Amino acid sequence: MAGLLTWIIVTALTVGFAIGLALLMRRPMLGLLTANAYLTPAAKFYMRAFVLVVVLAALAAVTDTGFPCEKQSENTMTLVWWAAERLKPICWSVAGFIMVFVLLLTVLYAALGRYRDQ
């Protein structure tokens, strides 16, 4: 039972981390996307896609972790270390997605560079 509770806590922390990250990046990203008149109509799409993929990447990493075994559930500190160990790949997957998203936006701005607003 403690293993299931730990897994639920890890899932809640992951979703909270992904949503918090998306909220932190929302205003600067919308400012960047609306800086060019050609990207302004797509700003909401890119922002929603960013939030959706960050949350899905985090949840995909959580589902890959599995449950702690019953032997680990006997010791509370073992569960804490299990949760911390499982949060590491989640953070890496979200960071990897953000790097790819920034690369995508960089290529998009490079392609639209000749259409800069005056």
Provide a brief overview of the structure.
With 118 residues, the chain is mainly α. The chain has helices spanning 2-33, 43-63, 76-111.
Give a structural overview.
This protein has 3 helices and no strands. It has one domain (2-112). Helix 1 packs antiparallel against helix 2 (43-63), helix 1 packs parallel to helix 3 (76-111) and helix 2 (43-63) packs antiparallel against helix 3 (76-111). The longest helix is centred in the last third of the chain and has 36 residues, at 76-111. The model has no long low-confidence stretch (mean pLDDT 77). The protein has 118 residues and is an all-alpha fold. It has helices spanning 2-33, 43-63, 76-111.
Provide the low-confidence segments as ranges: none
Which term fits the overall shape? elongated
| Overall residue-averaged pLDDT value | 77
Q: Pairing-aware structural class of the strands and helices? A: mainly alpha
The radius of gyration computed from the alpha-carbon positions, rounded to a whole number of angstroms, is 19 Å
Write down how many β-strands occur, each being a DSSP E stretch of 2 or more residues. 0
Number of helices: 3
SSE sequence, one letter per element: HHH
What is the rounded distance between the termini?
Answer: 62 Å
Beta-strand content bin? under 5%
- Number of separate domains: 1
Approximate helicity band: over 70%
Largest sheet: none
Descriptive labels:
118 residues; mainly alpha; 3 helices; 0% strand
